Amino acid sequence: MSSLEFIKECQEKVFSGxxxxxxxxxxxxxxPNEDLKDLARCADEITRDYxxxxxxxxxxxxxxKNACSEDCTFCGQSAxxxxxxxxxxxPTPQEVVVKAKKxxxxxxxxxxLVAAWREPSPKDFxxxxxxxxxxxxxxxxxxxxxxxxxxxxxxSKLKELxxxxxxHNLETAKSKxxxxxxxxxxxxxxxxxxxxxxxxxxxxTGGIIGLGETREQRIELTLELARxxxxxxxxxILVPVPGTPLELQANxxxxxxxxxxSIIRFLLPESVIKISGGRETNLEDSGEELLQSGANGIITExxxxxxxxxxQKDLEMIEKIGLEIK
Length: 326
Ligand code: SAM
Ligand code: SF4
What we know:
Helix content is 42%, strand content 15%. The chain has 12 helices and 9 strands. Helix 1 (3-15) packs parallel to helix 3, helix 3 (36-51) crosses helix 10 (254-267) and helix 4 (93-105) crosses helix 5 (122-138). The longest helix has 17 residues, at 122-138. The chain is globular. Iron/sulfur cluster is lined by residues 68, 70, 72, 75, 77-78, 116, 118, 148.
């Protein structure tokens, strides 16, 4: 069977509502580069069939920056590394409301509050809840959170506050995890996802590619994401931050990035698949190709510690390729 016949056979299964097997996914991961365009095109057809032409546009607010107790080797906000990033603590609800309003006016579908800590202290959690309540009352945009580890009580409180989705990334394959973090475990991350799901929150999870993992390990992460079946997958492409152990990490070839996005689409046809950090620095076209290879979401107007594209530029890019914002 040719690569195209195999890709089409897998696509047929997806269109018939049958999940492709792990074996199929592994074989798709190993198709030769010259057949990658067919893989990407078929992934795009699945995206259109299940999700239409809409692109999910999200803006982030890094409500607590830097000096994190954890040693994640890729992260410019870890207290273990001297990255020269300014530190700040939680802003007031009023300050966040101004930014959330702006995000809504700029066409953002959702607004994600992100905090650089292992887990929220009771005092910080109370303050985050005040911020969420104020956004609900004054802005009316879908709120998402990425606040690290959660207790069951905290997850239920977020649900009560109508938080739609909780982000917590697996970061990489289980077999790679101890090389990129020693202050917590892969299981800790899985446990938080479980707590969030049990509280009724939608899940957003994914990781970072280009950490020096093998293709086998990208397959491992992809299959784990397929097992969890989150409403949203978020894939960052490593931005090597000066001062972190990964500052000299070589870029992943674009073909590996496209391959990963396309295969996630075969495995998770209904999910939002978002291109997160690293889009502007790793991709010459800033995501155009990936939005036609399985992805259907982007983050605009900057990331946690780095600037991103201005939303106008991203909206023009989306329009140029014939897609729409939600
Ligand atoms: N501290 C919480 C946690 O780790 O779950 C929440 C915030 S954490 C800063 C948000 C995500 O940003 C991480 O899970 C990681 O996937 C991503 N990220 C951090 N540094 C990155 C980098 N240098 N390049 C790409 N993605 C990065
Ligand atoms: Fe802390 Fe999250 Fe960065 Fe890890 S990824 S160092 S937990 S902020």
